[in-house]
Write a structure and sequence with these properties.
4 copies of one chain form a homotetramer.
Chain A lengths: L3 H17 L19 H26 L6 H15 L1 H10 L4 H29 L4 H6 L3 H19 L1 H16 L4 H10 L1
């Protein structure tokens, strides 16, 4: 089974998610620069979520680049990932409108955690289907970034109720962790070709 | 005639439908967790509709995977399916906002029924064009799932006015029926290749 | 230059246009069937516009199916078509909310007329680039449907101010005219291959 | 690494951006033509932004047409471009609702400037990866259009506070500059093939 439609559908959903978030930045009434000030937290939460969605798209791209055969279970395992990503605009909007208050910041972490778990399950499905010589398994290796992200999200959720900025710092830290270029899959593919 | 654009257009429309439904979950005013409570029925109806749209995308994917030649009538028969699917966000929003009341639950069933009929007509068009050795015909066989779904939707619509939760249970049951992996098309394709 | 991105971009824009129109059907407050009654004109105008966008997608598909080489001018000539199609949701919403009143019905005709002119210019560009043996020129022939549509839109616009239902009837008539399967391009391609 | 998904994702995001701008043109309450008058500035700012997004799509298309190998850094450098383009609907809406007032017109210029810088960085990344015989480098040459655009945006931003129509004229002028067909990349590709 080809992977073009799985990729096209995922690209479509992710492209829409990343773009409709901007609809939460409502056009203000008033023509002076000061009317933009209340939008700053909404804008900052948009930037953070844009980064996260961009990272997910990039990782999704690399993961399926290392996947030759698409199976039915992969099609199904892809849907929960898209589901949790689709809730990011809502969580982003609630967090931005309430200036990173405790409960919205915790919910944001819950959505990120669930998306990360869904991504991990999808990755395991692909590795399992590729058998003992899985290219993807070699590429992700111990997957310390994935594991560390899960732990940090799980810490950030309760932390939001104690110290909201600590929670936010963890979300920003995890995003930066993934922004550092990750050549694992590219390297393994290059070595496999050679 | 190639099928890439039919698939790309359908993927685009389905991706947008599945994503704009989330816009019905309006960001609440208030920063405590309790402000999310009124959103629970809206969220649950979103989950159900996400499942349905995901199932339709999956089945659409499999159906056209078993289709080599696209004819003009298939292009036209695809449009009513997209039309009825496009009404799911409206029906979902109305049902969620009114806590699964009678009329909205019945309308939800009408939209599901019409989408299922449109899907069935599209399937018949493809089978007819493939002639007596239709791969798709072998794959769907007696199509008991499709027929049972139509019957259950038709029962659920009037039932909504008598016992709304019975109606909802039928919608959930049909969704679960389709979630159970369906290897029919994959199996037939494998046997045909062998 | 390949045509895949031109098609993909056009498919994306058309898929979004056809889907965001449904956002104009606002979820009503009230859980009885009667609350849907005021939405009937909005729904009917949605159905008409869905038909038009579906027809444009179908014709666009066939036109580029008969086009091998994409030139820069074609890329530019495609944009005005997408621009005018993008105004259909606005015109549809205004017409539906005002129960097919004179001015909204006339504006709807103006948008349809401009889209039809943009389509015609794009078609002429392709025919001109294909030279004297243009497949597309053979396929569209005298293009009586295209010419008749332009005339009927031009009649319907002023008619809206005199007799709004006459105007609406013309819009429906043109849509039905295009729904009748049009095998011209398919036939010419088949004869060319043979 | 293939470029199909980079193109598909970019096409998706750009298609959504160009289309959701039209949602800012709110359907007016009132059925006479006069109710459209207040929408004229909103419509004009939509036309300008549609042109800009169309130009960006066209240039993006040409740039990647002259790019054979996609690297990880290109995937990342593409995201800031999409980010700044995604803010155009907001800037367009604010500018249109406030009849091209000073601060909204300046913000519009800031978003255009940042998008242009992001585009330039992406272009440099591709040229760097192509080495000394870069096709793209030959194609863009001195890139006087790109450089002049940056200067004009930088002039237009402060100018908006002194003379808003001068600022708007610069935005329109830059758009027209790019609308004049630019055969650079096509010509270089033709010569390279020959």
């Amino acid at each position: 089974m080809g992977k073009s439609r799985l990729e096209a559908f995922s690209d479509g959903v992710i492209a829409i998610i990343i773009t409709i978030m901007v609809l939460e930045i409502k056009v203000p009434h008033g023509e002076v620069i000061e009317t933009l000030v209340p939008l700053i937290p909404v804008f900052l939460s948009y930037v953070l979520s844009f980064l996260y969605i961009g990272i997910y798209w990039n990782n999704h791209h690399h993961m399926f680049h290392a996947t030759q055969n698409i199976t039915g279970p992969m099609l199904w395992a892809n849907l929960p990932l898209l589901f949790w990503l689709s809730l990011i605009p809502f969580a982003t909007g609630w967090m931005g409108e309430n200036h990173f208050a405790a409960a919205p910041s915790a919910l944001y972490g819950v959505v990120l955690l669930m998306a990360a778990i869904a991504y991990w399950i999808l990755q395991q499905r692909i590795i399992a289907s590729q058998g003992p010589n899985s290219i993807l398994k070699k590429a992700v290796g111990g997957d310390w970034k994935g594991k560390l992200s899960l732990i940090l999200y799980a810490v950030a959720i309760p932390l939001a109720f104690l110290w909201q900025w600590g929670s936010m710092s963890l979300y920003v830290f995890v995003a930066l962790l993934w922004l550092i270029p990750d050549r694992r899959i590219e390297n393994v593919l290059r070595n496999t070709d050679a």
